[in-house]
Specification:
Length: about 140
């Protein structure tokens, strides 16, 4: 299967990129880098893609395993190298689960399945960055 994305220059430092979902997103540089700051930053989008890919896996598994989770969010904290081309060499991915009846063992299993088996973006990141996976359980 092939993904084909079209990205069009809008002038200045701004671009618009399409997506197979039919939605478009705007990419722009920060004012420090000559842009207007009116769009997403490309490297930060990679972190959103990583969290989104893994999050979709986990949401699907939570449903499939009938787990009780009131709230779930992912914090992605990445270290950018100092030298050009700058890239993420280390990424911490925190999976935060909130609820009064959290099954930590099964929720850990959902993380493991995403990280080790299902998430293609995670596999791509593994090629260039050290990954640290941190489950965080908030019992309410």
């Amino acid at each position: 299967m092939t993904n084909h994305i079209s990205t069009k220059w809008l002038g200045g430092m701004a671009f618009e990129s399409n997506n197979p979902s039919g939605l478009n997103l705007k990419i722009d540089a920060s004012p420090d880098d000559g842009g207007n700051g009116e769009g997403f930053r490309p490297k930060a989008l990679m972190l959103s893609a990583l969290a989104g890919c893994s999050g979709l896996d986990i949401a699907s598994l939570i449903k499939k395993m009938k787990l009780e989770v009131d709230e779930f969010h992912i914090e992605t904290i990445a270290n950018l190298t100092d030298e050009h081309p700058k890239y993420y060499d280390a990424v911490v991915i925190e999976y935060h689960f909130h609820g009064s009846n959290l099954n930590e063992t099964k929720l850990q299993k959902t993380i493991d399945l995403s990280v080790e088996k299902y998430c293609g973006v995670m596999e791509m990141f593994r090629r260039f960055a050290e990954l640290e996976i941190k489950p965080v359980f908030h019992h309410t």
